[in-house]
Amino acid sequence: MMSLYRHSNKNGRRLFFAVVLVIVIFLIDGVSGGNIREALRFGASHAWGAGARAGSAITNSGFFSTRRALERENQALRNEIARLQMRAADHEILKAENASLREFVRLAEGGNGITAPIVSSFRASPYGTFLIGAGVEDGVEDGDLVVVGDVELGGFVVGRVEDAGGGQSLVKGIFAPGERTEATIQGVGITVEGRGGGQARADAPRDALIQAGDPVISTSFGVRAIGIVGRVEEGTGGASQRVFIQLPIPLASLEFVYVLIQ
After folding, report:
1. Nearest Cα residue to 155 out of 187, 121, 110, 185
2. Rounded to the nearest 5°, which phi and psi values hold at 52?
3. What confidence tens digit (pLDDT) does each residue in 72-118 have?
4. With contact defined as beta carbons under 8 Å apart, do 118 and 185 qualify?
């Protein structure tokens, strides 16, 4: 309570002195004929004028106009970069399309068959099948071989036509999960088991000289290659070695295949 009283008393004294000071200033201003007010107005006017002149000097210096010009230039540069990036992307698309067309023409020139586009993703089916844009209307029949690569050199067999429709056909990949194919590597007979995704495996005798890159040939497909050896794993025991087989071309990158018409 005493503390509150002292605080209020102190505020009261401050207010009293402030009132006395204001009264004294007015008395002095009256005695001096208003000189104090004139001095205050002059000082305020001078300060305001100085501020205005400083603002005008900054504006006339071109600082803000230069900054706006730089912002416009930066925006123009960003637009140009975006345009060049778009052109670069278009260039890559054209390169890919040209490569596909060259592959199309090269396939069309060799072998007794037709070139067909792939119209479904290899990853879309868990059964190792895919659709091609050619069918009975194009002379395709069930059992026709589907190959990729250089047809004149035999190419690589990727599957057989399983169900030929009017304008499309279903192809079963030879490396579909569970598919078994008799083949040879360096003259050594093996049974290839499909694992899906263009991958397969086989067991070969431990003493067989097999290495990565060796072609895998199958007489079931007209003595044609069905893949290459990706790697070989030699077990710590037993009489065999595990051979992992793959296509030389990633399946996901294929856009066209060649159908060998019987």
Report:
1. 110
2. -65, -45
3. 888 887 777 766 665 665 455 455 545 545 554 444 445 588 999 99
4. no
Tokens 């792939």 belong to 118
Alpha-carbon distance of 38 to 56, in angstroms, equals 27
Whether 152 and 217 share a structural domain:
yes
SS3 150: coil
Largest CA distance in the chain: 128
- Say how many domains are in the chain: 2
On whether the CB atoms of residues 261 and 114 are closer than 8 A, the answer is yes
Q: Residue 76: inside a domain, yes or no?
A: no
- Residue 20: which domain range? 2-60
Identify whether 94 is part of a domain.
no
If asked whether residues 34 and 117 sit together in one domain, one would say no
Reported as a single tens digit per residue, the pLDDT across 44-71 is: 565 556 565 655 655 555 555 677 778 8
Same domain? For 152 and 233 the reply is yes
Q: Supply angle C-alpha 92, 93, 95, rounded to 5.
A: 65
Does residue 204 register a pLDDT over 90?
yes
Residue 20 lies in a domain: yes
Q: What is the pLDDT of residues 3-26, one digit of tens each?
A: 444 445 555 666 666 656 656 665
**Secondary element (H or E) of residue 205:** strand 199-205
CATH, residue 242? 2.40.10.340
List the one residue out of 230, 200, 222 whose CA is nearest residue 155: 222
Q: Which of 172, 175, 231 is nearest to 200 (CA)?
A: 175
Q: Which residue has the tokens 């069930």?
A: 142
